[in-house]
Write a sequence for this structure.
């Protein structure tokens, strides 16, 4: 970058050269294009300046050649020595030597005593070298400025920077009151000292580029972190997919075995089937003609697995799942539903329940859809989907729920038995509250509730349910004129009712009782036992047959029943020639199967643990499934369904 020089300054130098007899410098090569260009530029500047004293020496030497030497051609060299004695403000002797050897020049300043001063090497005219001079050297003497002393770094109001002694000498010249570079007027009092170790011009574009690159680096680092997280997620999803693939392959094998066994059974084959886990498939391990040959069908253990904290369950025959109500272990363990596949015990899924649900007292799978109905002590009646595992409806109850049931004739109606002896009817098309409420004969909790078949109602539009409380059995008619339930005759004379089993296929009813003690007044309590609590007492099973709107008592048989719990029981229909009653024996710890209505024992099933928490029966394809839930253990028994005259019940 070429500097712009004041012609007055050039005249000032030429004046000193003539005054002190400085030798004339040889002319450079006239054929040198760069020197000619420099001479033309200097001549233009001289012509444009009114106060110029001439920019060319007596021998045609330019001011640029005097200050910088010949940099254009290394073959031509200019050698000269100039000693300038300036006696102004400072008593200094400044020796200026211009050396043209090698195209370089240096200037030396000798202080008092002849000591060598600082030396600054003048650079070439390239942009990078001039940038260094601009930031570190005084443009008048070309020596490095200092942070103090006579040559202190300073600036003029126009912003140009010089050494203090140099700019003072310049401004004190007669008729010189302008900046040597921009020619703006200024005075000595306008000089401002700068306090900096060095001044370096900063490249704005370069700084922008650096900031841009730093921003890109930060962005790339963030992208790298994001991709690392995504990689971890992808690996996790890949592992989950591999696990699902293994499960689906196993399930496919099970279904293929089930299909083959179904085809064999259709062709009369009696061979048993095993799945890929070496477990017998459900309901195909017995000869379908076994009962027809004179022997009763037997329930065979098919599955036995652990299910911690389970208290109730039901069987979803549509999706081939077990649904358990259980409480998680630990203090304040949450109450959840757990689905377990009938085909693979390892496929389990917990379903969270609505808040404040508390302990579940009863649950039932819908006979119309893949829905489950829950009654809980948290005064909630909930309907959940076993497909989506989501809660569809939740009703608030006026009291804790003890029992619940679906209407077997309509998918819209559901029922809840409460702790205060009330039974509520709900229509799921009305999601706010119940549609009808009937109060019981007493305030005893309704611990069991069953929906009755439609043919049991004599009036069109009346829906009936059968319930059990400690008082006995009652029939409730919704949509009729009755405001109170109907007590089943003599059901309140047997003791304290603790269990009720009902078959909608045969209308058989079995109620279980334990004895009660009459106390003064109307108070009643269970008969104390001679054994330790929890070891059972001697009670009874009472058999009823429902015929239309009437109930016929068929008989009573003794039984070993629980003295502290409300046990569960079930009626099996379609496995034997007659219905079979399944209940637990508190003395032997077995599940006893008894023929109805004779109550003759037809089989004993030994659960893995005792006591028995729940018993459920359902039909699946050509088999009957009997589930027995004991303490943290689930057992599933199966038997082929009974054929009468070649027709399966």
């Amino acid at each position: 970058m070429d500097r712009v020089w004041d012609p007055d300054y050039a005249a000032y130098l030429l004046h000193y050269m003539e005054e002190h007899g400085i030798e004339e410098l040889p002319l450079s090569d006239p054929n040198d294009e760069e020197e000619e260009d420099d001479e033309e530029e200097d001549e233009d500047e001289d012509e444009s300046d009114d106060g110029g004293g001439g920019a060319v020496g007596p021998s045609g030497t330019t001011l640029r050649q005097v200050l910088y030497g010949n940099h254009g051609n290394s073959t031509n060299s200019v050698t000269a020595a100039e000693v300038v004695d300036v006696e102004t403000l400072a008593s200094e002797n400044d020796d200026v030597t211009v050396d043209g050897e090698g195209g370089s020049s240096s200037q030396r300043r000798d202080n008092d005593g002849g000591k060598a001063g600082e030396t600054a090497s003048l650079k070439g005219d390239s942009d990078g070298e001039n940038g260094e001079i601009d930031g570190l050297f005084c443009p008048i003497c070309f020596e490095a400025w200092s942070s103090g002393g006579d040559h202190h770094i300073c600036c003029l109001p126009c912003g140009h920077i010089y050494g203090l002694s140099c700019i003072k000498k310049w401004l004190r010249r007669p008729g010189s009151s302008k900046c040597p570079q921009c020619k703006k007027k200024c005075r000595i009092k306008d000089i401002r000292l700068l306090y900096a170790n060095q001044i370096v011009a900063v490249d704005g574009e370069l700084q922008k580029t650096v900031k841009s690159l730093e921003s890109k680096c930060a962005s790339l680092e963030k992208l790298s972190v994001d991709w690392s997280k995504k990689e971890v997620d992808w690996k996790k999803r890949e592992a989950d997919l591999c696990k699902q693939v293994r499960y689906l392959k196993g399930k496919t094998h099970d279904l293929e075995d089930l299909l083959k066994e179904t085809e064999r059974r259709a062709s009369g084959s009696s061979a048993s089937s095993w799945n890929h886990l070496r477990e017998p498939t459900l309901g195909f391990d017995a000869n379908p003609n076994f009962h027809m040959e004179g022997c009763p069908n037997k329930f065979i253990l098919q599955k036995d697995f652990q299910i911690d904290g389970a208290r109730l369950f039901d069987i979803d025959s549509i999706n081939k799942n077990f649904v358990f109500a259980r409480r998680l272990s630990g203090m304040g363990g949450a109450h959840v539903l757990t689905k377990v596949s009938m085909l693979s015990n390892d496929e389990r899924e917990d379903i969270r329940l609505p808040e404040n649900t508390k302990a579940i007292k009863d649950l039932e799978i819908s006979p119309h859809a893949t829905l489950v109905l829950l009654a809980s002590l948290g005064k909630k009646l909930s309907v959940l989907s076993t497909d989506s595992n989501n809660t569809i409806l939740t009703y608030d109850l006026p009291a804790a729920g003890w029992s619940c049931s679906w209407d077997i004739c309509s998918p819209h109606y559901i029922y809840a038995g409460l702790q205060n002896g009330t039974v509520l009817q709900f229509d799921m098309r009305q999601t706010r509250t119940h549609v009808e409420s009937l109060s019981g004969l007493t305030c005893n909790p309704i611990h069991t509730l069953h929906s009755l078949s439609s043919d049991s109602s004599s009036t069109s539009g009346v829906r009936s349910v059968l319930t059990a409380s400690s008082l006995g059995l009652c029939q409730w008619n919704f949509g009729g004129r009755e405001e109170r339930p109907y007590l089943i005759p003599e059901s309140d004379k047997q003791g304290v009712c603790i269990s009720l089993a009902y078959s909608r296929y045969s209308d058989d009813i079995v109620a279980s009782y334990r004895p009660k003690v009459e106390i003064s007044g109307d108070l009643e309590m269970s008969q104390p036992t001679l054994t330790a609590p929890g070891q059972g007492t001697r009670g009874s099973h009472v058999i009823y047959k429902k015929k239309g709107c009437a109930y016929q008592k068929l008989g009573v048989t003794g039984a070993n029943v629980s003295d502290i719990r409300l046990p569960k029981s079930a009626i099996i229909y379609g496995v034997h020639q007659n219905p079979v009653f399944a209940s637990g024996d508190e003395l032997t710890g077995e599940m006893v199967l008894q023929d109805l209505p004779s109550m003759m024992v037809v089989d004993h099933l030994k659960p893995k643990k005792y006591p028995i928490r729940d018993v459920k029966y359902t039909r699946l394809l050509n088999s009957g499934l009997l589930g027995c839930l004991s303490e943290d253990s689930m057992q599933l028994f199966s038997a082929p369904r009974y054929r009468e005259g070649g027709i399966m019940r």
